[in-house]
Amino acid sequence: MSFFGELYVRSTLPFLSPEVTAREVAYLERCFAGLPPSGPVVDLGCGHGRHAAPLNTAGVLAGRVVGLERDAYSLAHRLPGFPALEGDLRALPFPDASLAGAYAWYSTLFAFSEAEHRIILREVTRCLRPGALLVFQTVPYERLLEQPSASFQRQLPDGSRLEEESRFEPATGRDHGQRRLITPEGRVLSGTYAIRYYPLAELIQLLESTGLSTKWVHGGLEGEPLTPASTDLIMGAELRHG
């Protein structure tokens, strides 16, 4: 079974409170407040649309957000209030220089191979128009170094039992994990993942090599600086000049 799909949706929703989503949406609204007043903004890997739905319904991006998601299950269970396309990050279904902005949350851009990460970022570069903005969130490399292995078991509100183990490899920068969900009916959903976490200097180099330049680096949703204690690494990027 694919990790992204029913397993991911059912095992992550209980941990995504309305308060957390509201704070993330408010952060994104502040990021995109200065955009030109026309052109779509794409939620890259929108999932069930917990960011895209409220952003497209009201506020500075109302009527401009389009979701992009490869997983059919997530699209079938998405929230109302925004249009969405089924598509692949590695081959974005948008014309050149057509997007006013794009954003991706929870390391969505870095769940592929090294070569594919470059392809994804080049695709984003191709689709952004001058003055457009890319915002993405991941976890600082140093946070994984502090806790290279993790394991937990938890009972979810619907009666499902969630089990997960993960192991971070500093040499490759990859966090390898296995998740297992046992539903109240006795179904077993399981899948594996491997997410790449980059030190900040490498991430900046990666952006520059794919035609982007760093506009800002934040360590949290209030726009605070990145520090060794930060739990988030949020970056704004734009087309590289020259």
Automatic annotation (TrEMBL):
This is Methyltransferase domain-containing protein. One of its GO terms (molecular function) is methyltransferase activity. Residues 41-131 form the Methyltransferase domain. GO terms for biological process: methylation. It comes from the Bacteria. It comes from Stigmatella aurantiaca. InterPro entries: Methyltransf_25, SAM-dependent_MTases_sf. Keywords: Methyltransferase, Transferase. Residues 150-177 are annotated as: Disordered. Residues 160-177 have a biased composition (Basic and acidic residues).
